[in-house]
Amino acid sequence: MPLGMSLRFLFALLVATGFAAQAAHSQTLSLKPFKDELFAYPAALSTGDNGAYTVLDYHEMRDINQRDEVPEKRVRAQYTDPGVRKVQQDLMLKTDAGDIRHVAVGRTEGASIIVLYLHGQGGSRKQGVDDFTFGGNFNRIKNLMAANNGLYLSPDFPDFGDKGAAQVAALIDHYAQQSPGAKIFVACGSMGGMICWKLAARKDTGGRINGLLLLGSLWDDSFLTSPAFKRRVPVFFGQGSHDVVFPVEKQEAFFRSILAKKSYPTRFVRFETGTHGTPIRMVDWRGTLNWMLTKAP
């Protein structure tokens, strides 16, 4: 084969190999199903903003009482697979920001995706790995991460201020170094949202995280000038319409202020008649994370 043809052939082979590798990488960043039919959203009552805003038909009698064996304490067996505990570890990480107790589920090195859950007031690392409360939804995210070469983290932290944010940032830094190719998503329940917004504002984590999920949580206008916002990190909001802690109207107004910024990647799911903890129980982890993976910087 003449040299010129050889070089052209080699170049074409390298390009094809690159596309194949890129396609394979893209495939690894689409989470495979886990009990999707059981965790599917109820019917939509309405949609708006080109699909970015959805109102869902939530009913306590169906979505708690029929789903749980003991309402709010133990979900029915078909909603969980407790075998995932085989890859669950209760760990301590020593950092300059302090010692961080956390539960890790899945690959602590070489993960393709990392998801953290930050609890609210009165919670602990144990809340985010409880297989039976919140309708089995934490068991689902654990299984999703384990089945997709991912890592799920549920940490303790000392407060919802700068110290707590520094420890969560140190935890993210550690596992990001262990899995440099992983996309990182942070889900915050209730008051945990204060840390979500602080992470977005930090230069280190704001430049590293790839998505935020606010579940029955609060708003923070400073996000609009944060490093995460400038990178167009996608944001998901789940809120109950009867949330008496953080009124849905204020969270909807904040969502719309984000959406107005050049079609920023954000979604809002309103659970009609849902209360403060409803989004943690009802969020479709797989659907939300797969959407975020398509928008992640």
Give your account of this protein's structure.
This protein has 297 residues and is an alpha/beta fold. The protein has two domains: 1-30; 35-295, Rossmann fold (3-Layer(aba) Sandwich). Helices cover 37% and strands 22% of the residues. It contains eleven helices and twelve strands. The chain has helices at 3-28, 36-39, 60-65, 137-147, 162-178, 193-201, 203-206, 227-230, 248-259, 278-282, 285-295, and strands at residues 44-48, 53-56, 68-70, 74-75, 88-95, 98-106, 113-118, 151-155, 183-189, 211-215, 235-240, 266-271. The protein has a ten-stranded mixed β-sheet with strand order 1-2-12-11-10-9-7-8-6-5, with helices on both faces. Helix 5 packs across helix 6.
